[in-house]
Design a protein that fits this description.
Layout lengths: L7 H6 L24 H4 L17 H5 L7 H4 L4
Amino acid sequence: MKEVHVSLHNIRNCICKDCPSFPGLWKELTHAESPGLFCAHGKSRIDIDQKGCVCGDCEVYTEHELTGAYFCVNGKAQ
């Protein structure tokens, strides 16, 4: 597993905003608060109702050989 860094490449490939568990506040949050790329940033600052996880479908997940899921709830990839 490779550490995930916040980079333009990873931000562009992140699919967190398409996740069924994401509460739909994407556009209302500033970048500093913005969930997304949870595998690099860590847990969400807003509550997440676990309705399914798309982490395993993400190019960032594959490229960095990540394991696990729900980084928005469990924290960044270790």
